[in-house]
Design brief:
Layout: E1 14-15, E2 25-36, E3 42-52, E4 57-58, H1 60-71, E5 74-75, H2 77-92, E6 96-105, H3 106-109, E7 120-127, H4 128-131, H5 133-143
Parallel strand pairs: 2-5
Antiparallel strand pairs: 1-4, 2-3, 3-6, 6-7
């Protein structure tokens, strides 16, 4: 698990008979745990993963599996966000990908500055979610932002 796993393998089985579906696919509030690569302290949060399919979709559990595959590694939240988005972009070839992660970091609450109750949000937008303001607003509204 973790470094020896390629999370992209979870996206190999796709469904092409989507009945003309061409709207956003969004999986919200996916819980995850990781560990900060600098302090080995827990990172606990949830992610929202969305994509705009071109001509195929993937089973929704596969989105969570991709997240968990990268979260099993020592991480920084920014990289985790980017890795999940890049994996979907490369494997599904969608029109757009949006990943937003919100997490609390034990290195922030339990050591150093000792500021509990703080969460950090990171995002990565690709394709139409980055280039088209209307699409970006739509996906962020669906995510609750």
């Amino acid at each position: 698990m973790g470094y020896e796993e390629d999370p992209g393998v979870h996206l190999e089985r796709v469904f092409e008979e989507v009945g003309g579906y061409d709207e956003i696919v969004l999986l919200k509030d996916i819980p995850f745990q990781s560990h900060c690569e600098h302090h080995m302290a827990p990172i606990i949060g949830h992610a929202h993963i969305a994509y705009l399919p071109r001509d195929k979709v993937v089973g929704i559990s596969k989105l969570a599996r991709v997240l968990h595959g990268y979260a099993r590694r020592l991480q920084v939240q920014e990289r985790l966000t980017a890795q999940v988005a890049h994996c979907l972009w490369e494997n599904l070839k969608p029109l757009g990908v949006a990943v937003v992660i919100e997490a609390s970091h034990a290195c922030m609450s339990g050591r150093g500055v000792r500021t509990p109750g703080v969460s950090m949000k990171t995002s990565r937008m690709m394709g139409v979610f980055r280039d088209d303001e209307r699409s970006r607003r739509e996906v962020l509204a669906l995510m609750g932002f």
